């Protein structure tokens, strides 16, 4: 029995040492230690051993098994290491090459300007709301008191999707959607993208952004409009900023005005920046037309309000002294990272 075990051990060791792959090693394990393995057979024949020899033989079988298992384990980890080494070699990474540096993005000047505008109006108790970029004729034109013969309705100026749907030409339709909700008073701004069929140049783009504003409550007067927008201009362009309201016409407001701010570069004396004017136009505004209120279900005898609309790019160009609007759309990191 002793000899037999010795032979099994020697044979197992030899086969293990000859194994050059993990699969082969496993075959050896099965051949000796498996259910039908050689050592297992010896274990099964233990019943024929004389009772007084059993402890000694049992010990021997165990020792043999442990020796084989130990060598199997050791060889297995050697083979695994060798396989990993080979894999690493084949992947061949050249660690001396310079690393690729990830470039972090940068907030867009439009975004920075919008956050500034939002900060100012939120500070005055306004809510920020949004509306759809695709509108129907009612919200984009009719509900804003824009008559059929108005040039804005012209296919030359507006992107029509079909006879009733347009890419909104202003953020003003969001006013209507907000008024229709029937929750008064209203104090809101609505930033968003708008579309006009314009050629691209230094001051025009077929897609740009506006921020609309609307206040509706009892006893709102033109004085509220002036005070609010004067305060806004000071916050945006500095405490010495003066404002000038020039009479204008919009179908959805009456009376209407355009707001000019004193040039923050020259303080109003006139310079290259304000083209010698001393003033820079920044937005349109006015008292909401009674027709507009009525169409959205608000009684103009009980409520009144003011509205305004500004081009966001215009604000960004002025504030950051950018002289060509196209730069805002090129997404050139070298340009964007300056702001
Ligand atoms: N909708 C106007 C435009 O696109 C901007 C505007 C002017 C909005 C006066 C208003 C407003 O709400 O009262 O040019």
UniProtKB/TrEMBL annotation:
GO molecular function: ATP binding; catalytic activity, acting on a protein; magnesium ion binding; phenylalanine-tRNA ligase activity; transferase activity; tRNA binding
GO terms for cellular component: cytoplasm
Keywords: Aminoacyl-tRNA synthetase, ATP-binding, Cytoplasm, Ligase, Magnesium, Metal-binding, Nucleotide-binding, Protein biosynthesis
Pfam families: Phe_tRNA-synt_N, tRNA-synt_2d
Subcellular location: Cytoplasm
Domain Aminoacyl-transfer RNA synthetases class-II family profile: from-to ranges: 117-338
GO biological process entries: phenylalanyl-tRNA aminoacylation
InterPro entries: aa-tRNA-synth_II, aa-tRNA-synth_II/BPL/LPL, Phe-tRNA-synth_IIc_asu, Phe-tRNA_ligase_II_N, Phe_tRNA_ligase_alpha1_bac, Phenylalanyl-tRNA_Synthase, tRNA-bd_arm
EC top class, as a word: ligase
Presence of keyword Ligase: yes
EC number: 6.1.1.20
Cofactor note: Binds 2 magnesium ions per tetramer.
Record text on subunit structure and interactions: Tetramer of two alpha and two beta subunits.
Assigned protein family: Belongs to the class-II aminoacyl-tRNA synthetase family. Phe-tRNA synthetase alpha subunit type 1 subfamily.
Protein name: Phenylalanine--tRNA ligase alpha subunit
Species per Swiss-Prot/TrEMBL record: Candidatus Galacturonatibacter soehngenii
Organism placement in taxonomy: Bacteria, Bacillati, Bacillota, Clostridia, Lachnospirales
Encoding gene (name): pheS
């Amino acid at each position: 029995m002793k000899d037999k075990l010795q032979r099994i051990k020697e044979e197992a060791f030899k086969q293990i040492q000859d194994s050059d792959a993990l699969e082969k090693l496993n075959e050896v394990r099965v051949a000796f230690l498996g259910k039908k393995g050689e050592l297992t057979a010896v274990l099964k024949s233990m019943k024929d051993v004389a009772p007084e020899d059993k402890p000694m033989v049992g010990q021997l079988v165990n020792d043999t098994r442990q020796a084989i298992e130990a060598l199997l384990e050791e060889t297995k980890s050697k083979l695994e290491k060798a396989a990993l080494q080979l894999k690493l070699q084949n992947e061949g990474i050249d660690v001396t090459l310079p690393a690729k540096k990830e470039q972090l993005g940068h907030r867009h000047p439009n975004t920075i300007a919008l956050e500034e505008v939002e900060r100012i109006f939120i500070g005055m108790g306004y809510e920020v709301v949004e509306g759809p970029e695709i509108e129907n004729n009612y919200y984009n034109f009719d509900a804003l008191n824009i008559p059929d013969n108005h040039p804005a309705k012209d296919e030359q100026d507006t992107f029509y999707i079909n006879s009733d749907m347009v890419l909104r030409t202003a953020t003003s339709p969001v006013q209507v959607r907000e008024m229709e909700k029937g929750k008064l008073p209203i104090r809101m701004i609505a930033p968003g993208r708008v579309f006009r069929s314009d050629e691209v140049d230094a001051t025009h783009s077929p897609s740009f952004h506006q921020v609309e504003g609307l206040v509706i409550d009892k006893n709102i007067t033109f004085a509220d409009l002036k005070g609010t927008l004067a305060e806004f201009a000071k916050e945006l362009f500095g405490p010495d900023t003066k404002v000038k309201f020039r009479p204008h016409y919009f179908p959805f407001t009456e009376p209407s005005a355009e707001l000019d701010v004193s040039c923050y570069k020259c303080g109003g004396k006139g310079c290259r920046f304000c083209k010698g004017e001393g003033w820079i136009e920044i937005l349109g505004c006015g008292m909401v037309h009674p027709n507009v209120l009525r169409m959205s279900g608000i009684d103009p005898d009980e409520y009144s309000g003011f509205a305004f609309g500004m081009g966001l790019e215009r604000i960004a160009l002025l504030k950051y002294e950018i002289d060509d609007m196209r730069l805002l759309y090129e997404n050139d990191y070298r340009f964007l990272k300056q702001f």
